[in-house]
Design a protein that fits this description.
Layout: H1 2-12, H2 24-44, H3 51-64, E1 71-73, H4 75-85, E2 88-91, E3 94-99, E4 102-108, H5 113-117, E5 124-128, E6 131-132, H6 138-145, E7 152-158, E8 166-171, E9 173-176, E10 180-185, E11 189-194, H7 201-213, E12 221-225, H8 234-242, E13 248-254, E14 262-266, E15 279-283, H9 290-300, E16 305-308, E17 316-322, E18 328-337, E19 353-354, H10 382-394, H11 397-420, H12 430-448
Parallel strand pairs: 11-12, 12-15, 15-16, 16-19
Antiparallel strand pairs: 1-18, 2-9, 3-4, 4-5, 5-6, 5-7, 7-8, 10-11, 13-14, 13-18, 17-18
Helix pairs in contact: 1-2, 8-9
């Protein structure tokens, strides 16, 4: 096995700049130790184990011991990862990481089985099909959650505000992510929802915004919703930020070698909207990685107001390094910093305005509060009386009621469509309501400020 160790050492000499600080004699001894353990396992373990399985497990153990985001990808997992970054893959539609030996949910993806089942950011998955997650690697756990379309998988969820574990059975589906959605809010605000950063995201954002902008000749604000967006490709985060910035740094990445710092900047001439149109970026604890790059860049440049709750806090960069004939390794190679030099690793982006998710309900008894209209001998509103007479004389009451009924039916159908697609109905989305109120308040202020 000493010969095995020497061969390993010869192969490692190509990495001399990385391990130049190590004493080579000590390294040789450690490789001898690995070789001895390897040989002992393959000869004495209770069951026969393939050499390749042992080596892959050793490599994965080495990488996963560094941080939750580094790991080994065998050929199958590497191919699946390549498919996923293109925006189509099979499974439950859930972005996860490993924490305290359990699978932690970073974010469910819109319109997927995970989102429809009610899985939330911060949930812990403790059992998969009644098999304990503790002791599995992240890749093994993810593999168990994947499967053929229409097959079922049982998950046991641990949630902070739930005293008992939650069991749910999900049906696997083919996940086709449309990473950008857009619609209008009223006749003056554009709503852009970015669910992930895949190879198609920037093109989709430009296309969707161009489509709805035709319906907004008087555009006065943009909501960029990054809630529950687990991140994705760094290049896409930079290009999305560039779409809203005229100039300046978007993000910098700093490796162990200080001479290998990279800076990514916005270029002028490709902005989606004018600088005078306000933007609100919505985030929560499911906004991670690339989402935090965008939110941090727009916040530091004072280009947008960030609203919501503190983000996930993943401020590290992973590089996927292919290994010829043996899949790839995902290695954390750098930390990223916002334009002002902030590292949000394990800290997250703190919103400018903190708005917790909430449900608004009317106060009981508020309809009994007296007003001027209920007082005896009150003066009549002559203008209202004239308007009512004109309306009665000029319209067909029955037709009007019929139109109202149709409008109610359409509104009800639209609401059901939104719910069935996994989106939060706007009337139930307190954070979005506050974002819209904020944009409209900014525009009111712009109108009155010059007169002061």
């Amino acid at each position: 096995m000493r010969r095995f160790a020497k061969l390993c050492l010869i192969g490692s000499l190509t990495l001399a700049p990385v391990i130049a600080y190590a004493d080579r004699a000590e390294t040789l001894q450690l490789l001898d130790l690995f070789g001895e353990v390897f040989e002992r396992v393959r000869t004495d373990y209770v069951e026969e184990v393939k050499d390749g399985q042992l080596v892959e497990a050793a490599i994965n153990g080495m990488l996963t011991s560094l941080d939750p985001h580094s790991g080994y990808l065998n050929e199958k997992a590497f191919k699946e990862m390549q498919v996923q970054t293109k925006g189509e893959f099979g499974g439950l539609g859930i972005e996860v990481t490993m924490e305290n030996g359990l699978v932690k949910v970073v974010s469910p993806i819109d319109d997927t089985p995970a989102a429809k089942a009610g899985i939330k950011p911060g949930d812990y998955i403790s059992f998969i099909n009644d098999e304990a997650v503790m002791g599995l690697t992240l890749s093994e756990a993810v593999e168990k959650m994947r499967g053929t379309v229409d097959s079922k998988v049982k998950l046991t969820i641990l949630r902070e505000d739930s005293p008992e574990p939650i069991e749910m059975t999900l049906t696997r589906a083919e996940i086709k992510i449309k990473s950008v959605r857009a619609h209008t809010e009223g006749d003056d605000i554009a709503y852009l929802r970015v669910t992930s950063f895949t190879e198609q995201t920037t093109d989709l954002l430009e296309s969707e915004f161009g489509r709805i902008k035709k319906d907004l000749p008087n555009l006065r604000g943009v909501v960029l919703d990054l809630r529950n967006n687990p991140g994705g490709l760094l290049e896409q985060a930079v290009s999305i930020s560039d779409a809203f910035l005229r100039r300046g740094e978007v993000v910098s990445t700093r490796e162990r070698d200080p001479d290998r710092t990279k800076r990514y900047s916005a270029s002028s001439g490709d902005e989606l909207i004018d600088d005078n149109i306000p933007i609100v970026v919505m985030v929560n604890n499911g906004s991670a990685s690339a989402s935090e790059i965008v939110a941090g860049a727009l916040q530091d440049h004072k280009r947008a107001i960030v609203l919501g709750t503190k983000t996930f806090g993943k401020g590290s960069v992973q590089t996927v390094i292919p290994l010829t004939g043996h899949g790839a390794i995902r290695l954390t190679t750098a930390r990223y910093y916002t334009p002002s030099g902030r590292s949000i690793q394990a800290k997250g982006i703190m919103p400018d305005i903190v708005v917790e998710p909430a449900k608004i309900e009317p106060i009981k008894g508020s309809d009994k509060v007296r007003s001027e209209a209920e007082l005896r001998k009150r003066l009549e509103n002559l203008q209202e009386k004239k308007d009512q007479e004109k309306k009665t004389n000029g319209t067909d009451v029955n037709k009007d009621n019929g139109d109202k009924d149709k409008d109610k039916d359409k509104e009800s159908k639209d609401k059901e469509t939104k719910k069935s697609s996994g989106e939060i109905a706007m009337a139930e989305d307190f954070q979005l309501q506050r974002a819209l109120d904020l944009l409209r308040a900014v525009n009111v202020y712009k109108q009155v400020a010059p007169e002061q």
